[in-house]
Design brief:
Length: 225
């Protein structure tokens, strides 16, 4: 399945969508690396692994891997080959499980993809990042490659199931390393400083307006009210 994705699906995506990829050579080809990206559409998690020069693990809903029929098994095999890791997001420990899964990938020397905003942007702006990305970088020593995705929201707008044709650009920034904070991963101020540095780099790459507040979906706002 991985050979099918590498030699058939990835070239097909490049042929159909013709994504403009910049800075892919900045991704280290070995060792632990975090790809920290803005999040505009569901297809983001497919575009990044298909244009990156190495396998990238992302988190995926556990229910995508539990189908027992042929379609379900093929879906699980396909997502597994892409690098998706099943995580149950329907419980209170989902955040800890996600960090634990990412930490395991990085400790094995792999590449892990993460969206520091925590959810897709509904207003087109880049919102304040959660500090989980900093916790992963500081606890594993992984470098962070910021990623700016442009145009994926036109490929798959909110509510659209089937992607449509639109021009996409994927920009990989210079790797950020935080060895200067070694031993300080337990300090909230350090985690916030690292996260803010990463978000600044993502903003430069994506061209989005940065908002220094966490993104809230409309239903979350209603619940809070």
């Amino acid at each position: 399945m991985q050979l099918l994705i590498r030699y058939v699906l990835a070239p097909l995506v490049r042929l159909v969508w013709r994504p403009r990829v910049r800075g892919a050579d900045r991704i280290p080809l070995s060792g632990p690396v975090i790809l920290a990206a803005n999040h505009r559409a569901a297809v983001d998690t497919a575009f990044i692994p298909l244009v990156a020069p190495r396998r990238v693990a992302f988190l995926g809903k556990a229910e995508y891997f539990t189908g027992r029929d042929l379609r379900g098994r093929l879906m699980a095999a396909f997502l597994g080959a892409l690098g998706y890791i099943p995580v149950d997001r329907g419980n209170a420990r989902a955040g800890l499980a996600a960090l634990s899964a990412g930490r395991e990938v990085l400790r094995r020397g792999g590449a892990f993809g993460i969206y520091p905003e925590g959810t897709r942007s509904l207003d087109g702006r880049l919102h304040r990042g959660h500090t989980g990305v900093a916790a992963l970088a500081l606890s594993t020593g992984a470098v962070v490659v910021p990623v700016g995705l442009i145009g994926t929201e036109r490929v798959q707008p909110i509510g659209r199931l089937i992607p449509r044709l639109a021009r996409v650009e994927i920009r990989f920034g210079r790797p950020l390393e935080f060895s200067r904070y070694e031993g300080l991963e337990g300090a909230p101020a350090i985690r916030r400083a690292v996260t803010d540095e990463i978000m600044d780099a993502i903003a430069d790459l994506s061209g989005q307006t940065y908002v220094d507040s966490y993104h809230r979906r409309p239903d979350e706002g209603a619940a809070a009210a």
